[in-house]
């Protein structure tokens, strides 16, 4: 068990891949499992780590004041790499030996952006994500979201030399982002001691000045991102069964939409006196005064939230269409749950 104390800003902590059985009190968005930590106060997080030698996901703690600024560089293990003017003397190098297989635990420690990552001329075998084993996936690139951990096997089986590892953003929207590429070097170290049958295919003892560069997808290649995420599968098999419920008691159609809410403040107005708000089944969430889990546990639900979250949106429409029907633009408001 590890205790972590934070005393700075209103914040909460979310953990990828660290399961917390019967310890749900400090995991998730504010006012759901806990109230936010107020400035000047403190809260002790009790995080239960596995007793056995199991995989644990990444832990990313970000303290933000105001609107996040656009980054001016991505990094691999703290170094932007050769394509930036500030670190080409200290570009991160992963030293490998021909014939060996390496486990890379890759964590996206960026606040807001997904990343494509690849190692030039080498296959990547994905064996785990967020602390859970998956069916092995062989690919030449990955797409990793903020806070996510991927466990990747890489075999050093190419002609010994230097190869770039590289990462760049994947962006599916129209907002501003850093359109740079960070690099590291996958560097063979034992090549001069290799058999002549291998050395004849490489100039290993005098490595090339310009390492081979990976073929990364474009920053807007949604098809590449979707292809990768669809390839990830549970380890479910005869030895590791996954039991899926067969009897369904309640069917819920849940729509996630961008709605409008009337606002009297001109400074908040975005669309003719309205402001934008997210909605589920056309209901915009209202922050309660006490966290939902706390009120449920202490049987204090009255006047905090209600159990009448609807099974479906108020009207049927083309749920996959680009535009929300005008009749559903303005959301209702409520603090609703479903039993």
Automatic annotation (TrEMBL):
It catalyses: 4 hydroquinone + O2 = 4 benzosemiquinone + 2 H2O. It is an enzyme of class 1 (oxidoreductase). Residues 14-52, 66-190 form the Plastocyanin-like domain. It is found in: Secreted, Extracellular space, Apoplast. Its EC number is 1.10.3.2. The keyword Disulfide bond does not apply. The keyword Membrane does not apply. PANTHER family: LACCASE-12-LIKE, MULTI-COPPER OXIDASE. This is laccase. The lineage of its organism: Eukaryota, Viridiplantae, Streptophyta, Embryophyta, Tracheophyta. The gene is TT10_1.
